Amino acid sequence: MYRRRLSQLFFAVFLNFPLLGQWKSLCVPILNCHSCPWAAFACPVGVIGHLVSWSVFPFLALGTILLLGALFGRLLCGWVCPFGFLQDLLHKVPIRKIHLPRRLSLLKYVVLVVMVVVVPLLIGVESNAFFCSLCPAATIQAVVPWGLMGGKNLIEIVAGTWIRFVVLAIIVLLAMTSRRSFCRFLCPIGAFLALCNRFSVFSLRYAQNDCPRCKRCLKDCPMDVQIEDFERKGQTTVVTAPSECILCLNCTKNCHKSSLRWTLWNLFPKVKDHASVKESENHV
């Protein structure tokens, strides 16, 4: 979808545009390293980790995540996040693709709790187990630029921080072979936003009774969402998107029955699906 690609490209430039200035007191819940020389905003993972290590509760960072998560959910992952954009591009590399088990998506919550909260609290942010010490976005956006600006060549940079580049190489390989693998299995910001997806304003409307279960809609889903993730027993229309959905809208394009539609569910009243309306008319 070219509109999503344009949005991703725009934000990749906008969030790292030198003339924009730096507003590091503000967090944007996407994976965009605030240690980058040109980053305009702070990364909530780094802010939360450092504040926790100082025994300070991260009110502003968590508040920002909850506010933007309530408004947009994981739409931020699909339309704004520069590292998500990079993964989308990497997956186009023509090599053999693999399918990783969906249950691995629980790992990102472990990463969030352990590497963003527990490690800074008990050990400190200097530990190699702190997320930012291994973050692939930080390696690309901060380690390499600052190293080059300090007069080092790329070989010296890699030699000095080789663990980071091993992690980056693994993440790049996974992105090429399995779509959005980092977003699905490892991203702590994705874990935060996944928790917000069920009540965010931007969502998908799924008409269960109209759906033929052909699964054509989700054949191009980058997050491996299944139609069963939308369904809820005893309801005719489910408005909230599953926690893993990044609202890329590929499904709405592929659905030939219009069972899946983009919606601002929290701003408009819930509507019955076509089957329920017909049933009501028959009773009348």
Note the main attributes of this structure.
single chain, 284 residues, mainly alpha, Alpha-Beta Plaits, 2 domains, 50% helix, 7% strand, disordered C terminus
Structural class: mainly alpha
Q: Ranges with pLDDT <50 over ≥5 residues?
A: 269-284
Let me know the largest β-sheet. Answer: 3 strands, antiparallel
Q: What is the number of beta strands? A: 5
How much helicity do the residues have? 40-55%
Share of residues in strands = 5-15%
Rg result: 20 Å
Order of strands, widest sheet: 4-3-5
| First-residue to last-residue Cα separation | 43 Å
The structural domain count equals: 2
What is the 3D form?
globular
Q: How many helices?
A: 15
What is the overall pLDDT average? 87
Please write the string of helix (H) and strand (E) elements.
Answer: HEEHHHHHHHHHHHEHEHEH
